[in-house]
Amino acid sequence: MIAISTDHKRIALNMGLTALGFFILGGIFALFMRAQLTSPHGDLMSNQRYDELFTMHGSTMIYLFVTPMALALALYLVPLQIGARALSGSRVALAGFWIYLCGGLVMQSGWFANTGAGQAGWTSFYPLSNGTYSPGVGQDLWVLGVILAALGELLVAICITMTIARRRAPGMTVLRMPVFTWTSLVSVLMVVGAFPMLILAMLLLFIDRHGGHIYSGFTGTIDYQDLFWFFGHPVVYVMFFPYLGCAAEAVATNAHKRWFGYKAFVASMMTFSVLSMSVWGHHMFVTGGVTNGFFSFTSTLLLVPAGIEYFDLVGTLIGGAIRLRVSMLFGLTFFIQFLIGGLTGIFVASPVLDYNAYGSYFIVAHFHYTLFAGSVFGFFAGVYHWFPKMTGARLREGLGRVHYVLLFIGTNLTFMPMFVLGLDGMDRRVSRYSQHPGWAFLNRLETAGAGVIALAVAVFLLNVLVSLRRRELAGDDPWSGHTLEWATSSPPPPLNFERPLPPIRSYAPLLDLREEAEDRARERERGAASEARV
Amino acid sequence: MRGGALPLLVWALLLAASGATNAVWTGDPIQIEEFAGAVAITLATAGVLIVRRREAARRGEPSGPRDPEPVTHTSFGAVIAAIGLGVFVFGFTFGHFMIYLGMGIMVAGFGRLALELYHERRAVRRREP
Q1: Of A140, A124, A84, which Cα lies nearest the Cα of A231?
Q2: Using 50, 70 and 90 to split pLDDT, how confident is the model at B83?
Q3: Mean pLDDT over all residues of chain B?
Q4: Calpha distance A519→A513 (Å, rounded)
Q5: Contact in structure between B99 and B91 (CB atoms under 8 Å)
Q6: Which of B30, B1, B35, B37 is closest to B17 using CA atoms?
Q7: Contacts of residue A141 in chain B, CB cutoff 8 Å?
Q8: Residue range A295-345, pLDDT digits in tens
Q9: Cα–Cα distance for residue pair A205/A191, rounded to 1 Å
Q10: CB proximity under 8 Å: B 85-124 to A
Q11: A-contacting residues in B 61-80 (Cβ below 8 Å)
Q12: What is the CB neighbour count within 10 angstroms for residue A392?
């Protein structure tokens, strides 16, 4: 029954657990890659095997972990946050989850092909990915897997969009939706707008690989990149916004304050998401096939909405009664580490600087600071924040702190040296590198860091296991939450709410109730004091 | 806004503005088509929302009596159809027999879905006053 349930919470948990499985698989691929790079002329694997590993690592993480995990979080939390009893189109969402799972299995089945798995990178640029330069079944399975995974995720996104539009509770206006719901809404809008282009690009690539000659010549090559990056850049933000929402909710709750500058935040989310649909050409500066000025301009403009979010964060923290719980630590670190990824992104938004950094480890460091040091920290902020709601049990704070410290050290040990290596000229996607002074040492540091990350993930899994086996009951609202999901039982019942919803007069209805109660108590005290004086 | 389509329309409008800037600045046909495609898909989604009956009022209590609404707990049909699609697509690489097998599974899945929807509608009709 679990596998065919149309309850949005069950589908979300199934999708989240599947994505977590793919995260561990993608992490194992990364460990093999780092083991190969420990020494300049590592002989652990062939060049082809290394190509397969970095292709499948990137593809697994992007198509099968970070994006679906963001959607799974939205699928679980959005109906609860807007006071909906159920999801719109729950059958479609269920089918979406299964299509995504099939896509993941099809993609990974490439490992059993005699030509190996996909090996043209997670972008599969043309002509590298055509039938001549990447022959064999493995690359075909990669293309088909991407089509299925993207289709499944698109269906889930459509259901979330419909739910937000049609199933909000009485009183839940658009400008009263919680911060996480807003970040989810702009993400699913981007999925709806951008993912069809990926499906189209991959369908055409499949036809091309089988003699269709779709992307022939220079124009065809540029057209492929245009189609791919029209998906490829927005997806970075699909992998960022929901985790930003997780971190923002964790920070606001642990600071015991409303998220500062709500309306500015909503406006910045809308412009941020539209701008991020308009910057994809900065991945193509070196091709000479795009107007660099336009894409450099729009990419630099991203600073404005991003700045508003950081301003809101600082505003939320100032004057707050801050509790440094594990979710808060992850939430704050998300903002700090993402800043490194964001600022280095502004460097490469300049075509002149990008010409130098393109294809180097600088780029690898930049996007790992946004997607791993950023998004994954936001994900863990969300997990520690909402785990009690999903399971009824709290995660252990002590083990959580060990997990946090190890992940923080491991992340920076792995990805910070990549900036130095990139600036020094080390190319990405190479299984062997020259004996340049210092490179071997920095690569060893990175390998050690990857091991620490693996240890951190093991501690997290141990924490989940311990917390579920020896339960510390959480109650309905362990953190004095602000939003409607904390007004129902933990875990929530099948139709989400058994008790009547509290009145919704802002984006933090439970905080409103508490503040009203405090005001009443204060008035009573004042009245009693004045009576005593009389 | 009927159907709660307002955020989608605003988003589509902003995207169209960005696309227009791109068109004026670059004049690149494929980029213009991509923007147009994304705007069209968003507008189509908003259109569906506007056409369909809205399920909850945004302000105050929902007005007037509401029709009984079915609640779906499980759907075997959706899962079978999805797996059928997976088998169908896998068949393009693994072997053509799987294309036919996948199509067969999909047909079975959609059949089961139709049956589920039929029973659901019957149950709703029985509850109507």
Answers
A1: A124
A2: very high
A3: 86
A4: 10
A5: yes
A6: B35
A7: 90, 93
A8: 999 999 999 999 999 999 999 999 999 999 999 999 999 999 999 999 999
A9: 20
A10: 85-87, 89-90, 92-93, 113, 116
A11: 61-62, 71-79
A12: 18
Q: Decide: A26 and A65 in contact? Cβ < 8 Å.
A: yes
Q: What mean pLDDT is predicted for residues B31-40?
A: 95
Say if the Cβ atoms of B18 and A274 lie within 8 Å. Answer: yes
Predicted confidence (pLDDT) at residue A281 exceeds the cutoff of 70 = yes
Q: Does A488 touch chain B (CB under 8 A)?
A: no
Amino acid at A238: V
Cβ–Cβ below 8 Å for B55 and A189: no
Average pLDDT over residues B79-103: 96
List for chain B the helix, strand, coil content (%; round to 5): 75, 0, 25
Q: Give the integer Cα–Cα distance in Å for A204 and A211.
A: 11
Q: CB-based contact (8 Å) between A294 and chain B? A: yes
DSSP assignments along A300-336, one per residue: HHTHHHHHHHHHHHHHHHTT------HHHHHHHHHHH
| Cβ–Cβ under 8 Å, residues A126 and A205 | yes
Q: Which of A53, A325, A78 is nearest to A189 (CA)?
A: A78
Q: What is the pLDDT of residues A124-162, one digit of tens each?
A: 999 999 999 999 999 999 999 999 999 999 999 999 999
Residue B64 is predicted with a pLDDT of: 44
Instruction: Give the per-residue pLDDT at B125.
Output: 84
User: Looking at chain A from residue 192 to 231, which residues have their Cβ under 8 Å from any Cβ of chain B?
Assistant: 192-194, 196-197, 206, 223, 226-227, 230
Smallest CA-to-CA distance from A210 within B96, B23, B92 is with: B92
A136's tokens: 């064999």
Say if A458 is an interface residue toward chain B (CB within 8 Å).
no
Domains in chain A and their CATH numbers? Answer: 8-501 (1.20.210.10)
Q: What is the share, in percent, of chain A residues with pLDDT greater than 90?
A: 93
Q: C-alpha angle with apex A421: A291 to A293, nearest 5 degrees?
A: 10
Q: Do B41 and A192 touch (CB under 8 A)?
A: yes
CB atoms B78 and A6 under 8 Å: yes
Q: What tens digit of pLDDT does each residue of A501-526 get?
A: 999 999 999 999 999 999 999 999 99
pLDDT at B49: 81
CB pairs under 8 A between A and B: 184
